[in-house]
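Dear Dr. H.,

I hope your travels went smoothly. While you were away I took the liberty of generating a structure for the chain from your last submission, since the lab meeting agenda had it listed for discussion. I wanted you to have the full record in hand beforehand rather than looking at slides cold. The sequence, exactly as received, is reproduced here:
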Amino acid sequence: MALDQRDGVWKSGRGRGRATPKGRQLDDAALVEVQSLLGDRPRRRDLLIEFLHLIQDEYGHLSAPHMRALAEETGMSMAEIWEVATFYAHFDPVREGETPPPDLTIRVCESLSCELAGSEALIAALEKGHDPARIRVLRAPCMGRCDTAPVLEIGHLHIDHATPKKVEAAIEAGDFHAVIPEYETLAAYQKDGGYQTLATLRKDGDWQKVQEEVLKAGLRGLGGAGFPSGRKWGFVRANPGPRYLAVNGDEGEPGTFKDRFYLERRPHLMLEGMLIAAWAVEAEKCFIYMRDEYPAVLHILRTEIAALEAAGVVEPGYIDLRRGAGAYICGEESAMIESIEGKRGIPRHRPPYVAQVGIFDRPTLVHNVETLHWIARICREGPEILSSTEKNGRKGLRSYSVSGRVKNPGVHLLPAGSTIRDVIEAAGGMAEGHEFKAYQPGGPSSGLLPASMDEIPLDFDTLQPHGTFIGSAAVVVLSDKDSARAAALNMLRFFESESCGQCTPCRVGCEKAVKLMQAPKWDRELLDELCTVMADASICGLGQAAPNPIRLTMKHFGDEV
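The corresponding predicted structure, in token form, is as follows:
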């Protein structure tokens, strides 16, 4: 006789017992749907964000039954899945009883370049012209298309120089897939000598000699930090394997679009540079973390990675392409690594540094997309490709992402010692009817400088004495028709929205700064005190740099605040 059929302890308690375990119950139909979406993929925890994308893409939101089924399938807790799903802007988690979002979502960029181009009026027109129950209009951070502002996204379709009429035409057409530009394929790249350098290095190359060539070229990290690129290799190799390489393709700094520019034209330069760097540090695997705002780039990379595998350049699975989900903070390398591991993009405390403890706690080399682009060119063409160019005492070349009040916004490759006047001239001069007033030298993190400071070389180390830095070289030009005060507020609203919330100085500081900056007259003393706390006590660069727009606006545009 079974124990639970006997009299005694098993039947002595009062109550009817439970037919099911406590908590959310598993929906069999939802489980079948999730299993179908996941297919034969391994049920690893680090693939959680990829799994959430599969559900979001298929159903337009993340329902509670689907997340419960995903928890069952992966062996994870609902709490873990919920915290990740609610961290990223491109996921729509829906509780039981809540109304799912409409089938169609329009995301309108509200970054500085788009605001200058009229995004506020565009948002107002779209909100007024569409039934919110049928079409959802959302404000979104920079989409990396500042040269065609204002920009919006419907599904995966970006509309440049957006107007309500263009939106109506797109909705009527009903095709919301990304437009794939013409680019250099693997066959075309190999015809021009592509991957021959990699093959030679793999056969009998000396990684230290290659590192020396990169150092001779003067290449520094082009994601914003500016650390000497080749020097990283020795740091990573000093730690025992297995080692990994991560490509930071999450260029979310408003005003930045140079990585997209290069990847939509010559993706294999970055890919070969990545494989050379991976060879140099003996990386067992390469991870490419690409922002979700670049659907065309994601398509190109998927296609070309498959082509590399088919051609035998890499083993299947050696390159792991990961898709971001809308979080600026994941541009910070340790937050990116957390996201690659399927977690919230929360920056890590350092030390240890990622060269020692990175992906899955292993030594990890992290490079920016454009950095790898130049590594490939240096290895193919020699360090002179950068070091032979000199201007204003600075050596090298710079890819300036230029937008705002200029005639020809876009990516302009110029000597690293170029001044803002040189950059504006390369962009065709000021737009008609506009006079140069101010500029943002390296994204909102760099704040604003006045037109009178127009002789400073826009390069590493040259801007620090003036309380700013070049960062990712995202140059936004303002004119006499623009308000420095309004531009600074736009930047702080961005930081307020994108703070991961881990540390109080950044989370609360950005919120308080936005409120103080909306006052008719700024409380300079209080704002300065707040800036000091944020810069000194924030964990990562977001909170540390967020005060720059405030401080520089008070210093150079005091009459406006």
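Two observations you may find useful: The radius of gyration is 25 Å. The chain has a mean pLDDT of 95.

With kind regards,
E. W.
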